[in-house]
């Protein structure tokens, strides 16, 4: 397959990031099947027309069902809020389209399993947007682990911290409503950490968690509540977690700790992990995404310590496609790399990785943590 014709749903943050990736792939990865930006869909006719023009789509529509009926579309790329993922995925599979869906895959584990069954039965390619797997420094950590250079893994500790909810006046947007988002920091950020843990060191067996919604009510957006009355904006309840923390045991014997929060002042996109093994350790922080801190226990004692490796050498994943060593890359490159994997997989007639199986696995851990919180006990992953 020389070309993959794309129809995309959603044009905000992720819609823009994915559109940008489709534009960059042919320039930097010319051997990958070329994405053709056929049509973009959104509810607001004026805004989606503007997005189509600005991002470079051939056409636009306000009806995603119409998009699915088009014969000149091979791949449906879903960047809409989580509550519509299931319906669009099921309809895309029925229409025989490949699917690229943002995370978390669905509102619940049951929904995500249904989505997996549908794409597998339809025989289409499916991918879930765990883009942080595609950071070259994360790939380097994975390589060191797989080659046994860290030895036996004892610890995996990870945190994804943001601070955009620290202001109690921040409005009650869709990401703060359970019926639209499924959960809060847990599904938005924790889902990424869980996927990274699966990717880097394998499956978990049991978890125990806790969560909190620190700001219980927030002002309704003006589009819903109208202008403030007597200087006061009407408020509504926050129905998701601001922060979720949990401990885990891994099948390989390691102990894990996870922290996801959107209310940690000063942390903008601190998606970070540390892994300690018998022969070495690694440390990664997305706010310094080009670097991996590496420690090897067999370094001579007088120079032992963490060293900073800049993952921009041609020997590092994806780096050769970009700039000379030391000329760093950014967030958008994670999306470009995942898009390369998707297009390559379609061209080679294989499933991309991560796919819906990984999406379901992440959702399973999310739900086991929720069960453990609800029942104030350890929960096994197999229970859910
Ligand atoms: C918002 O909190 C968000 O954009 C997430 O939805 C993304 O998945 C994460 O990459 C960055 O933060």
TrEMBL record:
Domain (GFO/IDH/MocA-like oxidoreductase) ranges: 138-282
One GO molecular-function entry: nucleotide binding
Domain Gfo/Idh/MocA-like oxidoreductase N-terminal: 4-130
Keywords: Oxidoreductase
Domain of life, per lineage: Bacteria
Gene3D superfamilies: Dihydrodipicolinate Reductase, domain 2, NAD(P)-binding Rossmann-like Domain
Full protein name: Dehydrogenase
Organism, scientific name: Paenibacillus elgii
């Amino acid at each position: 397959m020389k070309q993959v014709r794309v129809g995309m749903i959603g044009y905000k943050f992720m819609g823009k990031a994915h559109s940008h990736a489709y534009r960059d792939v042919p320039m930097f990865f010319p051997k990958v099947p070329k994405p053709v930006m056929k049509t973009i869909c959104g509810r607001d006719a004026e805004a989606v027309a503007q997005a189509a023009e600005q991002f470079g789509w051939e056409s636009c529509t306000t009806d995603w069902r119409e998009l699915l009926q088009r014969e000149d579309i091979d791949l449906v790329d879903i960047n809409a809020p989580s509550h519509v993922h299931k319906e669009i995925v099921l309809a895309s599979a029925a229409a025989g389209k490949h699917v690229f869906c943002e995370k978390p895959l669905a509102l619940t584990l049951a929904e995500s399993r249904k989505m997996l069954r549908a794409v597998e039965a339809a025989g289409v390619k499916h991918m879930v947007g765990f883009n942080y797997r595609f950071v070259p420094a994360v790939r380097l950590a994975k390589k060191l682990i797989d080659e046994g250079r860290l030895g036996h893994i004892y610890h995996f500790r990870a945190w994804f911290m943001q601070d955009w909810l620290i202001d109690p006046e921040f409005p009650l947007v869709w990401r703060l409503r359970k019926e639209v988002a499924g959960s809060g920091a847990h599904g938005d950020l924790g889902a990424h950490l869980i996927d990274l843990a699966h990717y880097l060191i394998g499956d978990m067996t049991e978890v125990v968690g806790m969560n909190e919604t620190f700001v219980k009510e927030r002002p309704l957006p003006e589009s819903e509540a109208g202008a403030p009355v007597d200087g006061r904006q009407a408020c509504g309840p926050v129905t998701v977690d601001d922060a979720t923390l949990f401990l885990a045991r891994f099948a390989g014997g390691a102990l894990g700790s996870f922290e996801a929060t959107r209310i940690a002042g000063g942390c903008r996109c601190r998606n970070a992990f540390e892994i300690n093994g018998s022969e070495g350790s690694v440390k990664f922080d997305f706010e310094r995404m080009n670097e991996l801190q590496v420690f090897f226990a067999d370094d001579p004692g007088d120079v032992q310590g963490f060293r900073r490796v800049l993952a921009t050498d041609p020997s590092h994943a994806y780096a050769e496609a970009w700039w000379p060593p030391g000329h760093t890359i950014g967030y958008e490159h994670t999306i470009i790399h995942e898009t390369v994997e998707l297009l390559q997989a379609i061209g080679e007639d294989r499933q991309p990785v991560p796919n819906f199986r990984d999406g379901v696995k992440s959702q399973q851990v999310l739900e086991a943590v929720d069960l453990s919180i609800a029942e104030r006990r350890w929960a096994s992953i197999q229970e859910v």
